[in-house]
Amino acid sequence: MYRSLQQRLISAIQAFLRQKYDVHLPTLVVDAPPKVEMGEYALPFSFELAKRLRKAPRKIAEEVATELPPIEGFEKPEVAGAGYINFRLKRGDAATALAKGESTPVTHDGKILVEHTSINPNKAAHIGHLRNSILGDTFVRLLRAAGRTVDIQNYIDNTGVQVADVVVGFTHIENKSKAEITALTEQPKFDYYCWDLYAHTSQWYEQAAENKKIRLEVLHAIEHGGNELSEIAEIISRAVLRRHLETMDRLGIEYDFLPRESEILRLNFWALAFEQLKEKGVLYFETEGKNKGCWVMTRPGRERVDGQPDEDAKVIVRSNGTVGYVGKDIAYHLWKFGLLGRDFGYKKFYLYPNGQQVWISCDPAEGESDHPHFGGVSEIYNVIDTRQSDPQETVKEAIRLLGYNDKADHYTHFSYEMVALTPRCAIDLGYDVSEDDRAKSYIEVSGRKGFGVKADDLIDKLIDAATKEVDSRHPELTESERREIGTQIAIGALRYFMLKYTKASVIAFDFKEALAFEGETGPYAQYAVVRATNIFRKAGIAPGDALAYNVDFTKHFAETAEIWEVWLMAGKTSQILELCISQSEPAYAAKHAFQLAQLFNNFYHRHHILTEEDEGRKKFLLATAAVMRRELIAVLAAMGISVPPVM
Questions:
Q1: N vs C: which end of the chain shows fewer Cβ within 10 Å?
Q2: What range does the record give for the signal peptide (predicted)?
């Protein structure tokens, strides 16, 4: 709500500056005074205008403060320091509007595509995948909360080397038939079986040079299709993919569409993209140097340097005619933007308990005629770790070189850093940690080596630990009730932990830190909501009714000034969520949730609401608790965190 007030303030000042001084400042810096008693907004534009107007900053500030017409929602401004102008909200009016939940709806054109998770379907999901999925899912929730239409896609590389390695493991190490492998996929944790087999296969490659040749033979068979090895790869990848969806569903993470690389290849998406790239001169055929015989991507002005080939050019098609990962990705992104001229076929693949249908790509001849429309979006966000920054930038540049500058401007690589384990966490998980590793701040995981945390194991362990705490606090509840509450706490703890660090930070995961009821954690924020809910339960009224009270906010803020800070922070929720979207950084939401919880807990301990004898003040305190509860629930919901009834 306060975002719209700030915009109103900026517009009024810009209009006054044009009228008074004939100057236009397209952007105005808005700071906060050092103390809230001085106001909510501090504007330093007088310093910027001083040289242009040949006046002292304070003189300009005094002129503006004196002559600026009244602005709806604001008190008369005050000059501070050497030239700041402080603006104070009409706090009673602002609180009344916030209590009513007044907001201006925003309409948006176009659809946004968020691609996240994208796990190779060759083994169980691990802790690093959880950061990707939680970031992506949270960003989807933020966009939808802002009124945007979003498609969620999970790209499946079902023809890559990782799937080939598991096929090699089954067919050349364990010598299993197609029927035997099919039977194994019925096991509840088939993805765990593949986890161990994948690590075993990686070791097997090191035992003899001819073993690695088998990998290439199998990979080529899978890419080509129409043979038993490709059929086995399909059986394995579909079974593992189903397990991945089940794992992510435990965290409330869902998808709309699963585009697969097999269709990218077999529907000749690349052939169509290749023609566009050659026609527009984005690719050229190199006849000299180390890239001789390859199709490489143009770097304007670098095709020849002093008559020599550009040795650093990106190879898109190798000299043997095979297209690299980036080439397939360019084709896929042209489809995303509706620029390819061809579409997938669509089949139903997975149905969530809530009735949400997940579609998977297939040959159009095998697909269903009645399906949602995917692709043709206006914006793209790809949640992919920082190691893929260079390929992502190459794809984006190719789209720009094709002449689609507007599309390239709306292509965002939503990058993030890796997840590791604290030594204590690795020991808790049963790993043998060396003395050297115990001294490190974190230990990197490796799926190829079999060292890592399976996502389901992590979730199970968190639920067990949280439920044990609930058991000790609430023995009066049934076992299923305690387990359900423990699950809500565990999922909240995990999601919050993955979101509270900025994307560029390496995360060292730790069970005890994530589950702590104090400090910057999910349980701490959840507990603040539970406390607030208990107030209303004991008072015998609904939180919404408390927000509908006729309260003289101006009077009570004057009497208890520090409570205004509670309302001020609560009113920033929508602004914070907008910031998360504009900066592609959900960590702001986590920080806001923590600050809301802190302010509420301080308020809770300082003011005894239920025993307050003054009826007017009691209504004021109840309204304060209600608005904090509402806003904290809202920001937690945007993070995918629900609140249990008790903790």
A1: N
A2: none
